[in-house]
Amino acid sequence: MDDTKVLLEKYRITPDLTKDQFFLWDPMISQRIAEAADLNKDDVVLEIGAGTGNLTYELAKKAGKVISFEIDKRFTPLLKNLPINVELRMEDAWDYVQLHGKYWHHKQYNKIVSNLPYSFAEKFLHNLTFLRYDQAILLIPKSLAVRIKNHPIFSSFFEVVKLFEVSSDKFYPQPKTKSVVVSLVKLPDVIKLANLALFLRQFIYQYEDNKVKNSLREGLIKYFWLQDCIKLTKNQAREIIKQSGIDQKLLETPPEDAKIYEQISERFTKIKI
User: Fold this and answer.
1) Sheet arrangement for strand 44-48
2) Which positions ≥6 away from 142 have C-beta within 8 Å?
């Protein structure tokens, strides 16, 4: 911790707690995170929140390339001598994440490894739902890891595997919340799983601006065609939705209420035509 504190004092950087600037100072933890990602020279890694560069250096040792974002330009002097395989972007990662997230399937990177700013973590997860990636290793609040497991959207797309906990004294300054390193494992293809309820949960989220009844109708038609080559008509799909007994108020709105995901899981588990 002393080295990180001295380094920040040298460049007159006071951690901005409103931006969740808690810096992982222990090199052993950074090494364990990089090892968990199982990196090789064919990997391109996305890192959000380079900070002092401690994790960035470890990732660069093993990966072919690291695309690293840091919004706080005060850290530019600390990051100017990063290895040549690091593409440093001193800018807000949000525009990039949005572009390469939910509706963008081209991979500029195949692995995501980050000590995420904690206030950024949850909205970042929304953009991982439809992104094609091989592995995501994230250092996040322990409370968030628990929420992901029970979250109606996140639990529709990936499983949270806890790798190890990181105590608060491994950060400078020390956060009040407990932290954990997790692997986000994508759920298998829902068509191969023959899981209609999970398919529909994913489908309505993909079209989250549409009314649920419309997304469910189109989702049913697509599922039965992909699963069994059955050409379901719109009227047949509407009848299935009617028979499911889902709350009409939930059907008439976009999927903003978590109850719709719960009801889909309950009502569409054993649907047949």
Assistant:
1) 86-89, 65-69, 44-48, 111-115, 135-141, 179-186, 158-166
2) 165, 177, 178, 179, 180
Contact 124, 116 (CB under 8 A): yes
CA 2 to the chain's CA centroid: 32
Query: Domain ranges in the chain?
Result: 2-186, 191-267
The DSSP symbol for 11 reads T
d(CA 270, CA 73): 54
pTM of the model: 0.85
Name the residue type at position 112. I
Q: pLDDT tens digit string along 74-102?
A: 999 999 999 999 999 999 888 787 665 55
Domain 2-186, CATH 3.30.70.660 — does that match? no
Distance CA 177, CA 118 (A): 10
Q: What are phi and psi of 116, to 5 degrees?
A: -70, 140
Q: Which spans in the chain are helix H?
A: 2-10, 27-36, 54-62, 76-79, 94-99, 118-126, 142-150, 190-193, 196-206, 212-228, 234-244, 248-251, 259-267
What token pair was written down for 132?
């094609």
Which residue type sits at 210?
A: N
Could you report the per-residue pLDDT of 187-212, keeping only the tens digit for each? 888 888 899 999 999 999 989 899 99
Amino acid identity of residue 197, one-letter, is A
